[in-house]
Amino acid sequence: MKSPYFTPLVTVVLLFAMLGIGGAVYPGLLSVQVILNLLIDNAFLLVLAIGMSFVILSGGIDLSVGSVLALATMISAWLLQVAHWPPQAVIALVLVLGALFGGGMGAMIHYFKLQPFIVTLAGMFLARGLCYLISINSITIDDPLYLAMSQTQLGFLGGFVSPSALIALLMLALAIFLGHFTAFGRGVYAIGGNEQSALMMGLPVARTKVLVYAFSGFCAALAGVLFSFYMLSGYGLHAQGTELDAIAAVVIGGTLLSGGYGYVAGALSGVLVLGTIQTLIAFDGTLSSWWTKIVIGALLFVFCVVQRLMAMGAARRAAA
Amino acid sequence: MAAPAQAAARDDATPALAALLRHSLFRPLAALAVLLLIDLVAIPGFFHLSIKDGHLYGSLVDIVNRAAPLMLAALGMTLVIATRGIDISVGAVVALSGTVAAMLIGGGPQAELPLIWAMAAAMGASLLCGLWNGVLVSALGLQPIVATLILMVAGRGLAQLLTDGQIVTVYYEPFFFLGGGYFAGLPFSLTVVALVFAVIALMMRKTALGLFIQAVGINPVAARLAGLKTASLIIFVYVFCAACAGLAGLMISSNIKSADANNAGLLLELDAILAVTLGGTSLAGGKFSLVGSVIGALIIQTLTYTIYSLGVPPEVNMVVKSVVVFLVCLSQSAEFKKMFSRARAA
Fold first, then answer.
1. Which ipTM value was assigned to this complex?
2. Chain A residues in contact with B164 (beta carbon < 8 A)
3. Would the N or C end of chain A have less CB density within 10 A of its end CB?
């Protein structure tokens, strides 16, 4: 899958530049644990961004992921605390429900030719609404397995990571395999490049599109599980607006929003860039946290424009 | 929803009735009528209107008054969607506009800057936002959702930065007129909506602008080749949408007598898109209906009001809303209609 755009590389360079400058200005920023914390604090976002990558590569968009995440935390908390289910069963059920939710939206998008934007928007309302149906208050989780997952520190390169960060990295490895080394991944890229051509080539367009949204729903539910390890609670207001962070991470990671180009691994660099911005602002201490949003907006702008200019340049070269 | 109605119309109704059933405003109006019917039965005194101090009071007035900012946002969104675009930065523009106005007026009983200047500055900020969106979409050719996503993220951040995340309370009385005043016995907000509607409807009907916008929505390339200035048209619709959002922002902050950069206009863009879709405008661009969008906004507000008044927990609101969106989407889908008629034939 040769990509004519170098933006994934730009992201990595940007990441190292930000860390380098940050390290020079704020001593202590470059300690191993600070870097590992980027991964620990953003494990759920990485998993969301992985699912979003596939959706965007296929030329779609999924606005429901933040709400599905919240719904997953809510269902987990309710089943654990009120219904007293065993945690393993809860996690398994939540993951299946997430995949079904996503798959259902995918089926509506494909079979009824509805716009992904509006279907996943309705999905976003639905999942958030279902959260509040379960409870309008936050439910604290005190299950021993969840506590253990929240507090375990796995030694790594002189620092430590959380089990959640490890799960997110495993998920990333699986996604890279799925995206770049399987027929499913090739199908996703082909559909994102041109759905008509993919159909004419005899690729299983229907199955792939439904699976892409199911995968995104699964990732959102998994992110919800990781988030409930992190927060030890279920709440309908959890992760509001995270779908936009995930989209931003994917775009900053160099994936083209029109679909068809990009790398699944870009999700990691995108998430790390977002995390680094937050860490830099936290280290500075004088900047208010609202700057995070403005800087993310500015970065989105720069990346979109660069992508666009390069696409135009490529089109002009192709025409010449 | 419409398929059986249309089939029945074909079978036994007069041509006039059939034409009525096929009218693009029939479905939104029917939905509104059903909601009002539910209210008539379930909520005592729903249609009761009374006059106190020369002002009209009642549930209906209340609904229309609360729907005013949404109507404004939906009117702007209609034109954007008609050009096959989408603007998800509406909520951020609402927050920014309200914040700018509140900060310039200040927290004292006297305005720091004359009211008209503060409002002009807020509208100016909104117009700049629209110009930014429009240029990104038309000149750079970014997808509308991406182009407006940038402002959606950064705009609210900017508003929060201006106020430091605090709620700015306004005590200057004249500012409250826009959102809470009365004109000719009716809430002033309605006059504002009526004026905006009249201006835009005249522009669409009496000039070729409406036709041009439809042409861009149906096929941008063909429209450009036919000699339309597509770029300026696209910039115009985004600027107009942002102006509507800015006005909605002023109205909201005037109504709540403060500017809340964190929550003002949150998810308003989604409600506006929903109102436009409910009103029968297709997200695929081309045909649009301004009246439909206003009715769509009324449907949403009536639905919210009904849910609250029936004593249903407000939490259900979002679930109901999402089910309505799914149903509306399905009823617009050609594939679904085909499947439905096939099932009926079998």
1. 0.78
2. 288, 290
3. C
Whether the CB-CB separation of B97 and B127 falls below 8 Å is answered with no
CB contact under 8 A, B150 and A304: yes
Where b means 16+ CB within 10 Å and e means fewer, A138-155 reads bbebebeebeebbeeeee
Smallest CA–CA distance from B132 into chain A, residue = A301
CB pairs under 8 A between A and B: 132
CB-CB neighbors (< 8 A) of A115 in chain B = 283-284
The one-letter code for the residue type at B92 is A
Whether the model pTM is above 0.90: no
pLDDT, tens digit, 9 for 90 and up, residues B29-78? 888 888 888 888 888 877 877 877 777 788 888 888 889 999 999 999 99
Strand partners, B57: B50
Cβ separation B156–A117 shorter than 8 A: no
For residues B63 and A46, give the distance between their C-alpha atoms in angstroms, rounded to a whole number: 43
For residues B311, B316, B322, B323, the Cα torsion angle rounded to the nearest 10 degrees is: -70
pLDDT in tens, B244-298: 999 999 999 998 888 888 888 888 888 898 899 888 888 777 888 999 999 999 9
User: How far apart are the C-alpha atoms of A75 and A81, rounded to whole Å?
Assistant: 10
CA distance A153 to A46: 19
